[in-house]
Amino acid sequence: MGAEPAEQLALPGLETAGAPRKARRPRATEGGIALADDLPVARVALELPPAHLDRAFDYAVPADAAETARPGVRVKVRFGAQDVGGFVVDRAASSEHGDRLVPLRRVVSPEQVLTPAVLRLARAVADRYAGTLADVLRLAVPPRHARTEQAAHADAATDPLPPLAEPPGEWRPYRGGVALLRHLAAGGAPRAAWTALPGPDPLVETGAHWAAALSEAVRVAVAAGRGALVVLPDARDVARLSRALEARGLPPWVPTAGGRVAHLTADDGPSARYAQFLAVLRGDVPVAIGTRAAAFAPVRDLGLVVCWDDTADTHAEPRAPYPHTREVLALRAELERCAFVVGSHARTTATQALVARGWAKDVVAPRAVVRDRTPRVRALTSVELAKEGPGAVARLPAPALHAVRQALESGPVLVQVPRSGYVPVVACVRCRTPARCATCHGPLGLTGGRSDPQCRWCGRLAVDWTCDECGAHGLRATAVGSGRTAEELGRAFPGVTVRVSGAATGVLDTVPARRAIVVSTPGAEPVAPGGFACALLLDAAASTAGRGLGVAQDALARWLGAAALVRPAPAGGQVLLVGDAAPAPTGALVRWDPVGLAARELDEVTELGLPPAVRMASVEGERTAVSVVVGRVGLATGDAVLGPVTLDPAASARGGRDDDGHLVLPGGEPVRVLVRVPWEQGRELARQLAASLAVRSARREGGDLRVRLDPKEIV
């Protein structure tokens, strides 16, 4: 059963029935409004979410907007009974929808904020993820700030780049690193999967090697007359890269003084962000760096796109159509024929799949270099700790405390804890049953050493809590957070400063290179000049105990993120992994071999038929809605369909397939259906899903629904 044609509504500029009409030029006047003499038709992409409206609509161009209604500008148009916003995507001499077109209401701004390159990219992203152009443009083009558009700003920098104090050498330790820069300098379009070494930036006191290497690559692209775009997980990484770029002659752009690098981050206010966006759009800067949405920045003459640390969850867009930065930039590299680099201290299976398919080349350091640049790593598992005697088997075992005591003599110590808070999870002291709220059944936790247990869902206090299973009143910690860990370390090392870095207490950017202990949650680790003397990675078992795809690689990425801040082994740096984590990521950390783990995991998902070895769509929602949408997808037959699975574990999963192999779901409860196809059919799967969603939108079919392509959490 193939996708049915979408029902069409009688709307301006939309053909609804009959044979295709011959293209006609609009009348010279429409409703008494004089129209443009040249190219009197504007094709407009509307900012409307319904899937069946995912196309350009034709409008007449009034004579007074003939010069301003250029492709890329924002406009207001009449659509049905409402005024809606949109973007002019083309001008034409005639329209296939007759000579009676509704005129544009007004041009919002003459600024051409949607460039042809970004429009092509947005369309490609929408097609890849079965989304709509309107949803992607909402991510790509920031809201207008009129006062900022009209403000004066410095002219673009035209002076040549200043010479470097030292020749670039951050890529020399890598196989293929020098070749990458050589191709960039020649205007080529190499594609690299880069596993970064730990280490400092020789030009920035608290800088990092990865930022130094990326700034060198960006400088090479700019020196060759091309633009560069780097997308990073958060504002802290943006600031670190900015300092590295400034140290190499690429200062940040400010409206009054100019510069060469624009910052596009979610933390900026609307005025500042729009000013930086306009600097990129107008060609005032050759470089843009920023967080997730910066992947769509309209950099001119683009020669290099970079996704740094694609293991970070912040690279996954939480809004429809849920694109990932790595995939957006990969599409952009193909469309604009520019160089592509995805880099991290770790390696995702998705990046490894790019290498396995031959789309990208590995850029990694030889083993001898890795051993020289990384700290010594030791896994303190229960088997190894048992050799130390009964006192060694504890959350903070004696060997770990001994290592911290020695390391404090030469510098600060980093302690990574996977959970924030004090005691986020508690259980009955007698029967070990998890303690739950009597009102909402959420998990109970402790916010301090003398606090009453509190529900983590509804916030109610559970004073005089009683276990429903055995009647006991006492509680024990089943998970310990960063606050309790800092308290324990403070008692173990009296007189030593203990600081906490995390979202709740404030994220530390740097710490002095002196005797101190820093307790941090993953991603909040500060930088110490010269590196930390030692790092403890606590509760390793909890890091690999989750379900779903990528648990092992996510755990390794968090560990490597902390371990990369430690001095190398020749300088005495060491990392201790405490706990019985899964063997595969533990071994990869000890060997410092993220590529090996990614290759192993890719082999496993290939054998199981899971992403990224295949393309997979997740359709979630009410049973009837899911059944109807999946039923119109021609590829959803036989073994390609997994499910339905009831999202409520207490409900039973019912359903089957018809004689053609298509899914038939009775019911009303929320379910999830997975549709998987070979990688080569992924584009067709997305097309068929988009067509089915357009039919659903046109028919106004009821029921909540969410469609995601290549979801990470499918277990």
UniProtKB/TrEMBL annotation:
Cofactor: record remark: Binds 2 zinc ions per subunit.
Role this protein plays: Initiates the restart of stalled replication forks, which reloads the replicative helicase on sites other than the origin of replication. Recognizes and binds to abandoned replication forks and remodels them to uncover a helicase loading site. Promotes assembly of the primosome at these replication forks.
Amino acids binding Zn(2+) 2: 437, 440, 455, 458
Pfam families named among the record's database cross-references: PriA_3primeBD
One MF annotation (Gene Ontology) recorded for this entry: 3'-5' DNA helicase activity
Record lineage: Bacteria, Bacillati, Actinomycetota, Actinomycetes, Micrococcales
This protein's record includes keyword Transmembrane: no
Subunit structure: Component of the replication restart primosome.
Binding site for Zn(2+) 1: 428, 431, 467, 470
Protein's name according to its UniProt entry: Probable replication restart protein PriA
Top-level taxon of the source organism: Bacteria
Keywords recorded for this protein, A-Z: ATP-binding, DNA replication, DNA-binding, Hydrolase, Metal-binding, Nucleotide-binding, Primosome, Zinc
Residues covered by the Primosomal protein N' 3' DNA-binding domain: 43-142
Biological process per Gene Ontology, one example term: DNA recombination
Cofactor(s) recorded in Swiss-Prot or TrEMBL: Zn(2+)
